[in-house]
């Protein structure tokens, strides 16, 4: 959807295994849309900023390519365009938007943007909508409801109360807005509610 230039992984999938005695698992890493974003705090020109809805964006019209934000992000969620990215007519036909970072350009930083154009229309981000497993839930924390690609909707508070949900590196004080849920046991109860 974002015509992401080669070399960038706005949502990077790590294949992790804690030990030879445990099963490997996948760890998807988007931009965590931190509530206390170090990337924003170090930007010398205000190109990185957090909107009132909590989404962290980069204004490439302002970015001077210093890459301070890349050094500050503990999740390695930002990428720098060292060269001019390859373009398509579709990409170049669109006016620049800070919500899409399109058209992509040389000498600036980019990252996952949480698809604000979709969420404004009440849709979930493109990665969540494309996930065939319904593994990614998205929603407004204040509405206390999250939905996945299968149309399953749960209360966020109930998911988090299940006990083992965690935020990656939250001990750093970044207040990430992405929670990782405990492994889900598929059962007949799945249609009745979230089973952590
Ligand atoms: S994950 Fe990194 S780029 Fe995203 S808001 Fe947090 S510090 Fe900034
Ligand atoms: S690379 Fe751009 S967005 Fe990042 S800190 Fe420098 S000016 Fe700000």
Please name the defining characteristics of this protein:
single chain, 196 residues, alpha+beta, Alpha-Beta Plaits, 3-stranded antiparallel beta sheet, two-stranded antiparallel sheet, 6 helices, 9 strands, globular, disordered C terminus, binds iron/sulfur cluster
Strand composition percent: 5-15%
Share of helix, binned = 10-25%
Rg estimate, integer Å: 18 Å
CATH topology: Alpha-Beta Plaits
Mean pLDDT score, rounded?
Answer: 92
Bound molecules: iron/sulfur cluster
Largest sheet: spatial strand order: 7-8-9
**Which class in CATH terms?**
Alpha Beta
Low-confidence stretches: 187-196
Q: Which sheet architecture does the biggest sheet show?
A: 3 strands, antiparallel
How large is the count of helical segments? Answer: 6
H/E element sequence: EEHEEHEHEHHEEEH
* Overall spatial form: globular
Number of strands: 9
Task: Quickly count the domains.
Answer: 1
Shape-level CATH architecture? 2-Layer Sandwich
Distance between the termini: 31 Å
The class by helix and strand makeup works out as alpha+beta
Describe it.
This protein is of the alpha+beta class and 196 residues long. It has a single domain (12-184), classed as Alpha-Beta Plaits (2-Layer Sandwich), CATH 3.30.70.20. Helix content is 15%, strand content 14%. It has helices spanning 38-42, 68-72, 89-92, 116-119, 126-130, 156-161, and strands at residues 12-16, 25-29, 48-50, 56-58, 79-80, 109-110, 138-140, 145-147, 153-154. It has a three-stranded antiparallel β-sheet with strand order 7-8-9. Strands 1-2 form a two-stranded antiparallel sheet. It has a two-stranded antiparallel ribbon with strand order 3-4. β3 (48-50) and β4 form a beta hairpin. The two termini are 31 Å apart. It binds iron/sulfur cluster (2 copies). One iron/sulfur cluster binds at residues 31-34, 37-39, 56, 73, 75, 77-78, 111, 174. Residues 31-34, 37-39, 56, 73, 75, 77-78, 111, 174 line the site of one iron/sulfur cluster (SF4).
